[in-house]
Design brief:
The chain has about 140 residues and is of the alpha+beta class. Helix content is about 20%, strand content about 20%. The structure holds guanosine-5'-monophosphate (5GP). Guanosine-5'-monophosphate (5GP) binds next to strand 2. One of its GO terms (molecular function) is adenylylsulfatase activity.
Length: about 140
């Protein structure tokens, strides 16, 4: 973990394979694995292996930054464009592999109000059942 990558999270241990996970897809840049608490028949998380500042997409409020460890959380910058697009492309690969192309949802929970719990940027890929909208 380098100085620019924020506070280590459980996902760093999953990348290092210190904690086991069910891997669905992996390449040199991203890891996709099944969520431990699935919210749909298919629920896969896609994360960048090199966090490099990607704790989240956008910064949270001054209040949250001041009172929590998020104060020093780096966020997505223009230089992250390539990995951000690769994460999204991987969602398609995962949806194909999981057979959910008839309908799937890609979610990023950004910040406390969106119920982000792990501050290592990740995409949720959900499918295998009828989704509701709005999600609530
Ligand atoms: P967030 O709420 O931050 O958007 O999503 C974090 C997700 O990570 C949650 O859906 C949670 O179930 C999942 N998660 C947390 N810890 C682990 C773990 O150790 N292994 C796996 N596979 N998923 C985890």
């Amino acid at each position: 973990v380098n100085a620019d990558s924020g506070t280590p999270t459980i996902f760093d241990k999953i990348i290092a394979k210190e904690i086991s996970s069910t891997i669905v897809y992996e390449d040199e840049k991203v890891l996709a694995f099944r969520d431990i608490n699935p919210q749909a028949p298919v629920h896969v998380l896609i994360i960048p292996k090199l966090r490099d500042g990607l704790t989240m997409l956008g910064k949270v409020s001054v209040y949250h930054c001041y009172f929590s460890r998020l104060k020093n959380s780096p966020i997505a910058e223009a230089r992250h464009g390539e990995i951000l697009s690769h994460l999204l492309y991987t969602a398609k690969i995962v949806a194909e592999k999981e057979g959910i192309l008839d309908g799937f949802r890609v979610v990023i929970n950004n910040g406390p109000d969106a119920c982000q719990s792990v501050y290592h940027l990740h995409l949720h890929v959900l499918g295998g059942r009828q989704m509701k909208w709005p999600p609530g």
